[in-house]
Design a protein that fits this description.
single chain; Farnesyl Diphosphate Synthase; 14 helices; disordered N terminus; binds geranylgeranyl diphosphate; metal-binding; Polyprenyl_synt; transferase
């Protein structure tokens, strides 16, 4: 039935999220078979199946449906996006980078399997991500898959996550300006979030107009996501001096609240979300999951 009026128009986001998360968890669980050697498979599974909000795959599936596609066709790409996200977290936690002992409430990958295996598990997840798209996406026209591979290669590499991480590392202990801070966030976090909706939409057969709107949407929610992250670091640190917050205070990391103040940061995040939602207006009720996800990202408390 067409959800265009009356009570049927009330979108049950909680149910949507729970269902999407469950299907994603199942697909992630099935994505690492067969895998040899067993020790590598265990290290890959340890981080890939460690929980997390699964925001990236869910954004991908929602964008595919918005574009008129079948979400099941985008699932291998949704899994690929979570693999890239997970490998970036494994590598980010390494002693050579952030040197973290805990991730998602558990010991980090290298703490359990050692640095060499953690690096290789990350490498294997990154390459498996491309395999998911190129070789494990039945039924999707090859020209769409080629576009998805292109998009993923841009956001994972120097023009995306890796570039953002390098600028972040180079900025450590320095006062950076708003432009540099936004560069870091747009590359480290925004690029992959953007790829989620763009690749999902590509698989669903989106036209240029929808792709352009989704790029604006994704930039908005990506930056808002990071501003909220910075705000949560501060508010959490004033409650309990948690590990991340404590470390950030010591490293004197530049954050939005530091540059703009807490109130202005909150306002900036809210404005970005409004802008993101605004561009999807022409797609009306079909955009409901993405509209609700934009709110969810800014209302989260962890
Ligand atoms: C991709 C080739 C390649 C290399 C990675 C290490 C690195 C280069 C980049 C670092 C990227 C990084 C750690 C970005 C931060 C991303 C971020 C906002 C993580 C938190 O995301 P949530 O809140 O976490 O979605 P959950 O646990 O819910 O998935």
């Amino acid at each position: 039935p067409d959800n265009t009026s009356g009570l049927a128009d009330i979108f049950d986001f909680k149910a949507y999220l729970a269902k999407a998360k469950a299907t994603v968890e199942q697909a992630l669980d099935q994505s690492l078979v067969p895998e040899r050697p067993e020790s590598l498979r265990e290290a890959m599974r340890y981080s890939l199946l460690a929980g997390g909000k699964r925001l990236r795959p869910i954004l991908c599936l929602a964008a595919c449906e918005l574009a008129g596609g079948d979400a099941a066709q985008a699932m291998p790409t949704a899994v690929a996006l979570e693999m890239i996200h997970t490998m970036s977290l494994i590598h980010d936690d390494l002693p050579a980078m952030d040197d973290d002992d805990l991730r998602r409430g558990r010991p980090t990958n290298h703490k359990v399997y050692g640095e060499a295996v953690a690096i290789l598990a990350g490498d294997a997840l990154l390459t498996r991500a491309f395999e998911m798209v190129a070789l494990r996406s039945p039924g999707v026209p090859p020209e769409r898959l080629l576009k998805v591979v292109g998009e993923l290669s841009l956001v994972a590499g120097a023009p995306g996550l890796v570039g953002g991480q390098v600028v972040d590392l180079e900025s450590e202990g320095k006062e950076v300006d708003l432009e540099t801070l936004e560069y870091i966030h747009l590359h480290k976090t925004g690029a992959l979030l953007s790829a989620c909706v763009i690749t999902g939409a590509m698989i669903g057969g989106a036209d240029d107009e929808l792709i352009a709107a989704l790029r604006v949407y994704a930039r908005g929610i990506g930056l808002a996501f990071q501003i909220i992250d910075d705000i949560l670091d501060i508010t959490a640190s004033s409650e309990v001096l948690g590990k991340t917050a404590g470390k950030d205070l010591i490293a004197d990391k530049t954050t939005y609240p530091k540059l703009l103040g807490l109130e202005e940061s909150r306002k900036r995040a809210a404005d970005l979300v409004q802008e993101a939602k605004g561009v999807l207006k022409p797609w009306a009720s079909k955009a409901q999951p993405l509209l609700a996800l934009a709110d969810y990202i800014t209302s989260r408390d962890r």
